[in-house]
Amino acid sequence: MKGVMFDVDGVLTYQGEIYPEAVETVDVLKDKGMILRFVTNSTLKSRKSCAEQLRESGFSVVEEEVITASYATAVYLKGIKPKSVWVLLEREGFNEFKEFNHDSENPEYIVVGDYRDKFTFGSMNKALRLLLEGAKLIGMSQERVDTSMGDAELNVGSWVHMLEWASGVNAVYIGKPNPYMFLLALESMGLDKDEVVMVGDNVITDVKGAHNVGMKAVLVKTGEFAEEDLDLGITPDFIYDAVKGITDILGV
Questions:
Q1: Containing structural domain, residue 226
Q2: What pLDDT digit, counting tens, does each position of 116-138 carry?
Q3: Using one digit for the tens of pLDDT, what is the confidence trace for 186-199?
Q4: Are 198 and 236 members of one domain?
Q5: What are the residues facing 88 on neighbouring strands?
Q6: How many separate domains does the chain show?
Q7: Contact assessment for residue 118 and residue 97, using Cβ atoms and an 8 Å cutoff
Q8: Does residue 31 sit in the same domain as residue 16?
Q9: Domain end (from 173, 192, 218)
Q10: CB atoms within 10 A of CB 186
């Protein structure tokens, strides 16, 4: 193995707390020359703000090592060159989309991230009508519930699924467990899938997602992990109580 992809929330940090030995584990891997990426389904954060937050928590991270769902979605859009977009997203993550032509009245693509309190009856009905009139739909993340900030919250996938169900329009999803985000990270690392391991706390988004692109995956029993997850028929390549365990399989 030459590289490691880390999920952030639930593996390195969770609900504002830093996991014991997480900072040291990242430092050890970097000292040994491992290429690292920090891959998160967060849409509210840009890769810049996510990197800054990790550095403030003590992690040695640069912006180029971070891939958020908002950043990955922006890269995807650059590839397809949309005529116009309506981006439903709040906070720093919106900064990833500054260079696009924004049109909330007649967009070619409706792009859904975490719109927080702006997910209203009015905004969702507007999105529905635009989809029925021919707009295409992109979901930054497929996850339906999030607990990384404390209490359970509706996540991006819940809103996108509602629009899909109501409009009959199928969305393109970008974030984990979909292949695009993993492949984007691999490309940025300059490594083959056989040379990189994914470390996550979610058997669907992290383990299954990694397996779908041919990567090995480590499941850590932190964050959103629950014992019943092991009964879902998805088998991690390795299981550890916490992130420090990966140093065993990497021989560092």
A1: 3-41+176-250
A2: 999 999 999 999 999 999 999 99
A3: 999 999 999 999 99
A4: yes
A5: 112
A6: 2
A7: no
A8: yes
A9: 173
A10: 21
One domain, residues 154 and 186: no
- Measured from the Cβ of residue 62, the count of other Cβ atoms closer than 10 Å reads 12
- Specify whether the CB–CB gap between 99 and 126 falls below 8 A: no
**Beta strand pairing call for 153-154 and 145-146:** antiparallel
Question: 27: burial class by Cβ within 10 Å (0-12, 13-18, 19+)?
Answer: middle
What pTM did the predictor assign? 0.95
For residue 248, the model assigns a pLDDT of: 86
Q: Are residues 95 and 106 in the same domain?
A: yes
With a CB cutoff of 8 Å and minimum separation 6, the contacts of 24 are 244
Name which residue leads in pLDDT, 16 or 95: 95
Which structure tokens are listed for 6?
Answer: 């880390």
Asked if 124 and 195 sit in the same domain, the reply is no
Helix, strand, coil: what percent of the chain each, to 5? 40, 20, 40
Strand partners, 140: none
Q: What is the CATH number of the domain that holds 224?
A: 3.40.50.1000
d(CA 244, CA 248): 8
User: In this predicted model, what pLDDT tens digit does every residue of 23-46 receive, in sequence order?
Assistant: 999 999 999 999 999 999 999 999
Q: Residue 166: CB partners within 8 Å, gap ≥ 6?
A: 128
Q: Determine how β-strand 85-88 pairs with β-strand 109-112.
A: parallel
**Tokens 């639930």 found at:** 10
Could you say which of 173, 205, 224 is where a domain stops?
173
Count the Cβ atoms, other than its own, within 10 Å of residue 31: 10
